[in-house]
Each structure stands twice: as C-alpha cells, then as structure tokens.
Design a protein that fits this description.
The chain is α+β, with helices and mostly antiparallel strands. The chain is built from 5 helices and 6 strands, in the order E-H-H-E-H-E-H-E-E-H-E. Helix 1 crosses helix 5 and helix 4 packs antiparallel against helix 5. The chain starts with a strand and ends with a strand.
Length: about 150
C-alpha cells in the first residue's frame, strides 16, 4: 500500500460542501491516505458538480470562455491532461430536469500532480467560480479505472 499525502488546500477543497463543513473542521492540516500502489501512479479526475438547485444560476458563456482559459493557463503546466464538460440536459424518468447545470472534469497524470496543482491554484479557481455560478459546488476526486 502506498501513502498519498494531501495538502491542506486539497483536504479542505474535498470537504468544501456545506454538509461536510464539520468534517472539514476535523481534517488535520496534513492528511495521509492509504491506497493501493496502483492508485498513486494512476490518472485521477477532479470532478466539480454544479447542482441546479432552486435559486442557482450558471453563466455558460463565462464558464466556457474565460473560466476554462484561466483553468488551462493555471493547470496546464501542472499535470493537467485534459478537461471535459458535461451540460445537464435532463434526468430520469424522461422529462425530469437535470440535477446539475454542469459537471467539469479535470484529468491529471497522478494524484501528486493534482495535489500540487490545487495547492498552487485552488484559491484563484474558487474565486473565479463566483463569476459564473451562484450555488455551492460539489467536488469529487476519482481514480480513472481503465476498462
């Protein structure tokens, strides 16, 4: 088993959702996770989900234009492999509105690249989020599993 150290900023970012604020206050300033050795060398994906809760709005023009330019500039030299964006168009059963305005996926070479990139850029990216989304985003980090 390999140990993966997450920086303070990454551990806080993973616990930023309002339901997890108590958890965030309990996370130590440096968190060590134990994971299979494969995980430490596998590609990882940071997904940012933007719920379409009542009262929220999402500015697609700003997001697809200025925000993605900022994200690529800040993260491109820090292990970012690619960015994918999902635009919510519906849910199930058919005719149900989408649960999310958008979901952004940022792929990084390894967890170390992601952690290093977030430690250097998260405050800027989070501040810019307020320019295109009025709600609270949800963040998930996933190992990309080849199938």
């Amino acid at each position: 088993m390999a140990k993966i150290r997450l920086s303070w900023i990454t551990s806080r970012l993973l616990c930023q959702h309002p339901r997890n604020r108590l958890v965030a206050s309990l996370v130590p300033s440096s968190l060590t996770l134990t994971a299979p050795a494969l995980y430490s060398q596998s590609m990882v994906r940071l997904s940012v989900l933007y719920p379409s809760a009542p009262g929220t709005s999402f500015d697609w023009d700003y997001f697809l234009g200025q925000h993605l330019v900022i994200a690529r500039r800040l993260l491109g030299a820090r292990g970012l492999v690619r960015i994918e964006v999902d635009r919510g168009i519906g849910a199930f059963p058919p005719g149900t509105p989408s649960h999310y305005h958008a979901i952004g996926h940022l792929y990084f070479e390894t967890m170390l690249h992601l952690d290093t990139a977030l430690a250097a850029t998260a405050p800027d990216l989070i501040a810019d989020q307020r320019k295109y989304y009025t709600g609270e985003s949800v963040v998930q980090v996933s190992e990309v599993v080849p199938v």
